[in-house]
Design a protein that fits this description.
It is built from 11 helices and 10 strands. With about 300 residues, the protein is of the alpha/beta class. It has one domain: Aldolase class I (TIM Barrel, Alpha-Beta Barrel), CATH 3.20.20. The strands form 2 sheets. The chain has an 8-stranded mixed beta sheet with strand order 1-2-5-6-7-8-9-10, with helices on both faces. It has a two-stranded parallel ribbon with strand order 3-4. The longest helix has 14 residues.
């Protein structure tokens, strides 16, 4: 980030190095997901926290296939012609939630602009299946923007997820180069409409740092999200998945993340996670429990 932050472009700094260990729990989660033919964003998006999350028996499920209809340059998920919708997937996913004994589950998807409802109906069926098999499990959905279709949004919200998450990802100036098929204002509008439709629903969004944004731009995005009624904010370091993806422009120091957290908390967010390895769904249950007091 600019504004007195020196970019580090050649070598990843020490605060962004993780030691990865493999245990029996991780192996069991991987085997179960393979057996049930389920995708996770942990694997598809090459998340740096995969070992830690799998080691705790948690995962963020990726529904509607493993191929996205959009071409965001930061994302490691495949882009191209999407798969046929698997109607049995919601049941298998609910089975995985039950077998993993998850107390909080995060459901996300690739963007499916090829579907008339953007995949909203599939999200709804998945929520219902989880509620049916694991009624005590809280459900967080991380959805695409549904191309701004409010009726599609309503389909998801009618099934009463506990948290509605939609990430703006970066500052508006960088959308044309980082998210060319997305729209910043449309994302804000989806978050605001979700809160309007379901005022008691917790809403959440996240941004990445290190794509070339300025500190001032980050503050403006945080304010925009708060104005849209967003309750939970996540801020993490962008790490380019490969040489063909958008380049990591700089590595942001941990103290900058701390400063952003303090700023957002002071502004009024109910929960803020801001650190280099923070990702949208990392420690999601902890955020929910802190807000709700662990009552569910």
């Amino acid at each position: 980030m600019t504004n007195n932050q020196k970019a580090i472009t050649k070598h990843r700094p020490e605060w962004l190095k993780k030691r990865v260990s493999v245990n029996s729990q991780q192996k069991w989660v991987r085997e179960l997901l393979k057996y049930l033919n389920l995708h996770t964003v942990c694997q598809s998006a090459v998340c740096p926290n995969i070992a830690e999350c799998f080691g705790k028996g948690t995962a963020t499920f990726l529904i509607l296939g493993n191929t996205c209809t959009r071409n965001c340059r930061f994302c490691a998920v495949n882009s191209g012609e999407p798969e046929k919708v698997d109607g049995d997937e919601p049941k298998r996913l609910a089975t995985a939630v039950q077998k993993l004994n998850l107390k909080h589950v995060v459901i996300t998807s690739v963007t499916r602009d090829d579907l008339s409802d953007g995949g909203a109906g599939h999200f709804a069926r998945t929520i219902s299946e989880i509620h049916g098999k694991s009624p005590e499990t809280t459900v967080e959905v991380l959805t695409p923007d549904f191309q701004g279709d409010i009726e599609a949004l309503k389909i998801v919200l009618e099934r009463r997820p506990d948290i509605f998450n939609h990430n703006v990802e970066t500052v508006p100036r960088l959308y044309s180069s980082v998210r060319p098929m997305a729209d910043y204002q449309r994302s804000l509008d989806i978050l605001a409409k979700a809160k309007e439709i379901a005022p008691d629903l917790l809403t959440k969004s996240g941004i990445m740092l290190g794509l070339g944004e300025t500190r001032k731009e980050v503050s403006e995005v945080i304010k925009d999200l708060l104005d849209a009624g967003c309750d939970i904010l996540t801020v993490g370091q962008y790490l380019s998945p490969s040489k063909v993806h958008f380049e990591t422009k700089e590595y942001i120091r941990p103290e900058v993340f701390d400063d952003i957290k303090k700023e957002a908390q002071k502004m009024g967010f109910k929960y803020v996670a801001s650190a280099p390895f923070v990702r949208s769904s990392f420690n999601a249950k902890e955020a929910f429990d802190m807000i709700k007091g662990g009552n569910k």
